[in-house]
Amino acid sequence: MEGGQTQERTEKATPKRLRDAKRKGQVPRSRELNTALMLVGGALMLYGLGPTFGRGLMGFMEHALDLGPVDVTDPTAMVRRFHLATQAMLTLFAPFLVGTVVIALAAPALLGGWAMSAEALRPKLERLDPIKGFGRIFSIRGLVELIKAIVKLVLVAGVSGAFLWSLRGDILAPPVASLNQELLHAFHLFGVVVIALAASTFLVAIIDVPYQLWDHRKKLRMTRQEVRDESKETEGRPEVKGRIRQLQREFSKRRMMQEVPRADLVVANPSHFSVALRYEPLRARAPRVVAKGADLMAMQIRTIARDNGVPVIEAPPLARALYHNVELDQEIPAALYLAVAQLLAYVHQLRTARASGAREPVVPEDLAVPEELTGGRP
């Protein structure tokens, strides 16, 4: 039954649902990607700033261990030294700490962006429900997280063991250089190992990111009924939209009919079409179609034109060409200039003759209407 099918979430999330989910804080997140970026960023900073850290630590140790007779006998000396040592360490590691904070804030935005809204920041008490918590632990998602943790542990342990084994000679070799050089060398080895470990976590992130995107889209899937309900909310009910379109057509028709009395002439096909034209030399390059219609509307246009003294000229080929090729409030094409000019000249002569009481001119025949514009339509 259709009622049962509509309960299945088979439809993709609409843009509105995605926006609502982001407002609620439901965006794709990959902790593995965040961890990998943090480790790689920290390792690169550590590798690049290693010599600076080494020299800073050596200077700190020399100053901290240099105790004079006054320092031994003064009870406040150690407090001052501790204060100075804290300032020195914070100054030394400030670039590393700032860089780590920047990476920690920027990494989540790479996948799902930020969801900084009041609704997203509001505490969700249902997350404290122990029953739901156990449900999340023993769910498919919990199983996936367990598999990822095992894979990550195996990778990190394997890469760590392999690098430590390859560097065993450097690590176990007796010191042959000065303390400064040995400390800088230790920082270098530590940076290389951390970069290797961070690179290994990227293997997990490469698998985790597509899964998180797929899982996010799956959780936001909609039923067909939800899609229909959302369409009604955003676009209105079909009957309302139909009524609006009907009112728009009626308004357009009334406005069009109001233009007929101001037309210069109406070109008609007695059985089908009527097209009203107006030419304003100072405002337009060519005559414009101000009203057109077929069948009943065509009869209404002709009636309004006759009631207001607008000449109605029967010219079937020209009426068909104008009706099918020119939209409302649009100038006629150049191919019809000559034919319309003949009718406008006739209208001018007709008005002059009626004003003077002279004999009315003959309606021009054989108008120059290209056959391709009429299309052979009746």
TrEMBL record:
Annotated NCBIfam families: flhB
Function: Required for formation of the rod structure in the basal body of the flagellar apparatus. Together with FliI and FliH, may constitute the export apparatus of flagellin.
Plastid recorded as keyword: no
Keyword Cell membrane applies: yes
The protein's name in its UniProt record: Flagellar biosynthetic protein FlhB
Topology of this chain in the membrane: Multi-pass membrane protein
GO aspect biological process, one term: protein secretion
Family indicated by similarity: Belongs to the type III secretion exporter family.
GO cellular component, one term: plasma membrane
Localisation per UniProt entry: Cell membrane
Originating organism: Thioflavicoccus mobilis 8321
Top-rank lineage group of the source organism: Bacteria
